[in-house]
Design a protein that fits this description.
The protein is of the alpha/beta class and about 375 residues long. The protein is built from 14 helices and nine strands. The structure holds iron/sulfur cluster.
Length: about 375
């Protein structure tokens, strides 16, 4: 095996040149080596557990216009919806009753929800679902707003950076959106004590190997707690409708490299990966991923949260769905865990559930 790959496995670091060489025409042997090492490392840090997050896509209104996104503000074809606070609480209640202890509230940057309204909503979820973790994924806001939400009890924040390369960022976004601002938001979130997640698309229009190298260098510098990586998939009503999708193979390879660079990272096998390949999420788990986010949104809303074409929308709305997910995970040697699943370096009394508390009868951890 080549020395660069061995060094990555041994030290969890890589230079720009080394990453460039790993990403340039990797052999089948190299891919397999890094995949096996990433899987072994994940097992060493997190065991066989896969953390399940209940995803609530609560609004598809967005004031931004990212060229790759099906719910961008310029898309007149999108059927817009906003869940009410009652509906969002009901989604979380259903998930909580099934045993889920993390809820991810995701939406566009929707001026229809005020920062104070979101803070109240989070407080209500925390009161209704004691001991749960709440993740927000609602885009770019000021440091003051992030501080308000942190005070309200938000534990984690997902904000994909999408690309760390300024020239690539310009291809994907209109002039009024700014990479510097996005990176500043990520820094603010980390400073405020959030478990912070970033991430990027694989195979997005204009993406070159050097852009992916920049993304991986950024991850090494920033050391996020979570990284969301999914293949680009075109959406028919966007300017990128005719562009080819990224590949599952390259996404899986990058998942392995990210696991090796950030051994403790919480790494989802994304919906986009599951959309692109029927066993995408299982293969993701075998490549170093350890998080899965089934959908708790009302079925009527799921099709409308149409970020890209043919988006998978399988959910966790019933015990049967969770059982099916459990079987899929067990087919690749994983164990479904419903506990909060905090990052291992997070100082929380809930972290004990990673090791303890096995709920008899249904076979999964809570
Ligand atoms: S990617 Fe996010 S910020 Fe951009 S248009 Fe879509 S929902 Fe809005």
């Amino acid at each position: 095996m080549n020395g660069t790959a061995k060094k990555l496995v041994a030290t969890h670091r890589a230079t720009e040149e080394e990453l460039f060489s790993l990403l340039t025409d990797p052999s089948e042997e190299l891919r397999r080596y890094l995949q096996e090492e990433a899987l072994a490392l994940k097992r060493k840090v997190y065991g066989d557990d896969v953390y399940i997050r209940g995803l609530v896509e609560f609004t598809n209104y967005c004031k931004n216009d990212c060229y790759y996104c099906g719910i961008r503000c310029s898309n007149r074809q999108a059927q817009r919806y906003r869940l009410t606070e009652r509906e969002i609480l009901d989604c979380c209640r259903e998930g909580y009753d099934l045993g889920l202890r993390t809820f991810v509230l995701q939406g566009g940057e929707d001026p229809g929800f005020s920062p104070e309204g979101i803070a109240c909503l989070v407080s209500a979820i925390k009161e209704q679902c004691p001991g749960c973790a709440v993740t927000l994924s609602v885009g770019e806001y000021s440091r003051e707003v992030y501080a308000l939400w942190r005070q309200a009890g938000v534990d984690r924040y997902l904000l994909r950076h999408e690309t760390a390369a300024p020239d690539h960022y310009r291809i994907l976004h209109p002039q009024r959106q700014s990479l510097d601002r996005r990176l500043q938001c990520l820094q603010d979130l980390k400073d405020l004590g959030y478990q912070t997640g970033c991430g990027f698309m694989v195979g997005s229009p204009g993406q070159k190997t050097e852009h992916l190298v920049k993304d991986l260098m950024f991850l090494q510098r920033f050391e996020p707690h979570m990284v969301g990586i999914g293949p680009f998939i075109p959406q028919r009503d966007t300017p990128f409708a005719a562009y080819p999708a990224g590949t599952a193979e390259q996404t899986l390879y990058l998942l392995s490299i990210v696991r090796l660079l950030l051994p403790q990272v919480l790494l989802p096998a994304t919906t986009a990966l599951g959309t692109l390949h029927p066993r995408g999420r299982e293969l993701g788990m075998l490549s170093g991923a350890n998080v899965c986010m089934p959908n708790l949104s009302p079925k009527s809303a799921r099709k409308k949260y149409n970020l890209y074409d043919n988006k998978l929308s399988d959910g966790a709305e019933a015990v049967e769905s969770l059982k099916a997910l459990q079987q899929r995970l067990e087919s690749v040697g994983c164990r479904m865990s419903l506990c909060r699943g905090d990052h291992v370096h997070t100082n929380t009394s809930y972290n004990h559930c990673i090791k303890n508390s096995y709920q008899k009868g249904n076979g999964y951890h809570v």
